[in-house]
Amino acid sequence: MDRSLLTDTELQLTRERNLKYRGTAKVYINQIVAHPSISRGLDPKNVERLCKVFSRDRCRRLGVRNHVTAIVSRQHLEMALTSAGVSTVALMTNPPDQYPLLDFPVGQVQCLHGQHHLKAAEELLPPSDQWWTVDLYLDDISSDLQAALVDKYLNEKVPSDGEVYLKVRQYQYEGNARFEERWMARLTANKAKRFRQLTSRVDVRAAFDRLRIIPALLLQGMKFGSIPRALATNCYEEMVHGLGSLLESWSYYVRGDRAKMLKVDPHTVETLQGLAPSVSVKDAKVVKGLVLSGEVFSKFTSSERKAIWKRLKRRRNIIPSLYTFFQNMWYLEACANCMKRLVNPCQRYPSVKSAFLGAFQMGPNNDDCLIQSSEMDFRHQRGPQSIRAEFGYRQLWLYAMRHYPQIP
Question: Are strands 21-28 and 101-102 parallel, antiparallel or unpaired?
């Protein structure tokens, strides 16, 4: 993944996180205290809920979703490691079934998240087995990293598919397998399987990755459940083109300014998607009011919103989003089913387009081809073989788009 896709803040936090993270260990529950920054008290209902979950499914203390995050001083960590005979390397690399049990003075391990898990475990576990799994950081972390560690992946709210995608791809780029695993663990088994299907098409995954420079596009519209169906169309080149067009449109709205791309919010994408202010008088009135009032693009100045409105009304197409992208794919799906009656994508030619171009044969006039200009009219077009093949491919799509309801 392109390093430029990470913001300066992300890069700074990434460096500090990798520097301050010391590994994962088992720690006695009675030695862990809440960090002073945790202002909320214990919610008895949440503790009761977790007790029921742990009773039904066991505590699953080693699962990444149940880890708590805590800070500890370098001195106390080194003392605990020496006492347990564990190296700093082992603490960073041990698999879950080999996490060491470390002994700390009471109060020296301060959790940033997970106090409800710890309380529920304290009530359920036998006195001789009261430990929990803790991701340990040094206590001299910055306030920004501390806030990041109490991140959305640790909240009770289920993250959106777009949020998971952004975080997983970030941590894959960093080579941070544990944090990647933590985010993947927030998905159901079915969603995780669908997400991983993207790895089968590097070109499509790269096209999704390029959207990371405008995070709102992924946060608003990424749906892992739609990926297998879209890939099953075998329209890979069309998917890459559609995602590229989506990125180009939103980049155009903000003049390609990277800083402004980050200021676009999911609400703006959600509100404007599908509207066509350049061709619809009604849509133009609605979009103009939303933009100039600050209802959308709310993080932009008044002058910036005026400039955005001018660019929005110049584009003679709908305002795209990942939602409109997937809707377009479902239309192409019906047409692609017709196209695949003529060719069968295979290992050598895996996409509809490559299968058609692989089957292309030159006609008797080697530099000439027919172009259908209406249902009854045709014209001749000269051009090299690659252009003639492309013309033929596109004409077949146009025919399928016109007649797919009647094609069995």
Answer: parallel
> Quick one: 310 exposed, middle or buried, by C-beta within 10 A (0-12, 13-18, 19+)?
exposed
From 127, 156, 185, the end of a domain falls on 156
What's the sign of the alpha-carbon dihedral 12, 16, 18, 19? positive
Closest residue by Cα to residue 114 from 54, 20, 30, 32: 32
Domains of the chain: total: 2
343 found inside a domain: no
pLDDT tens-digit readout, 61-77: 888 878 899 999 999 99
Any idea which residue has 């960590």 for tokens?
77
What value does the mean pLDDT of the chain take?
A: 89
Query: How many Cβ atoms sit within 10 Å of the Cβ of residue 90?
Result: 16
**3-state DSSP assignment of residue 98:** helix
Residue 386 lies in domain: 363-407
Q: Is residue 69 part of a domain?
A: yes
* Predicted TM-score of the model (pTM): 0.68
DSSP secondary structure, 235-271, as one string:
-HHHHHHHHHHHHHHHHHHTTT-HHHHHH--HHHHHH
Could you say which of 110, 132, 156 is where a domain stops?
Answer: 156
235 has pLDDT over 70: yes
Specify the DSSP class assigned to residue 69: E
Inside any domain, residue 331: no
Confirm whether 143 is domain-assigned: yes
Q: What amino acid is encoded at 97 in this protein?
A: D
Per cent of the chain over pLDDT 90 is 59
**What is the DSSP track for 351-380?**
SHHHHHHHH----SSTTEEEEE-SSS-EEE
Tokens of 270: 């959600």
